[in-house]
Amino acid sequence: MRRVAISACLVGKPCRYDGKDNYAQALLEMLEGDELIPFCPEDAAFGSPRPTMDLIETRCGIEAVCNGSGVLRSEAIRAYARNFFDQHGAIDLFIGKDRSPSCGVCSARLYDTQKNLLSSSAAGLMAQEAIDRNIAAVDAEKFEGKV
Ligand code: SF4
Q: How many angstroms separate the CA atoms of 27 and 11, rounded?
């Protein structure tokens, strides 16, 4: 049995920015028999619903910035990610919701400070923590059950 860390919205938690979920029935069927460990850094830190945020490449590195207010949100997300992986021990696989600035593995959008698009294949902040820990990581939309 694999221990699979998975974006909570994919298993039906209404933790998206708009208070909805991204329930992914076909994906969950491929994971039958695995131990699923859901996470949602944004809901934990900011609640749901909440304003959206974007990843911005700054002089100090990549930051998550709240749309509208411009408030930096990176540290709360990175702290959640560190704590999550520290607490849960060995994780065999990380499945992140594609395109999320927190959970997308190689599908998040990254902008410069003028909001010009730099990349559509960046890692979200929580996904980056998984990658840095050498955990196999994949976007939900690319998971085909073979990882
Ligand atoms: S993509 Fe990640 S941060 Fe966004 S709602 Fe899903 S689990 Fe939460």
A: 9
Write out pLDDT tens, residues 25-60.
999 999 999 999 999 999 999 999 999 999 999 999
Residue 32 lies in a domain: yes
Q: Give how many domains the chain has, as a whole number.
A: 1
pTM for this structure?
A: 0.96
Q: What percent of the chain has pLDDT over 70?
A: 99
**Domain membership flag for residue 66:** yes
Mutate to test the pocket of ligand 1, among 6, 10, 13, 16 (most ligand atoms within 8 A of CB): 16
For residue 147, is it within any domain? no
Rounded distance between C-alpha atoms, residue 128 and residue 146, angstroms = 21
pLDDT, residue 146, reads: 60
Could you tell me the distance, in angstroms and rounded to a whole number, from the CA of residue 61 to the centre of ligand 1? 22
The response to whether residue 98 sits with its C-beta less than 6 Å from ligand 1 reads: no
Is 101 within 8 Å of 110 (Cβ atoms)?
no
Pairwise CA distance, residues 108 & 75, whole Å: 18
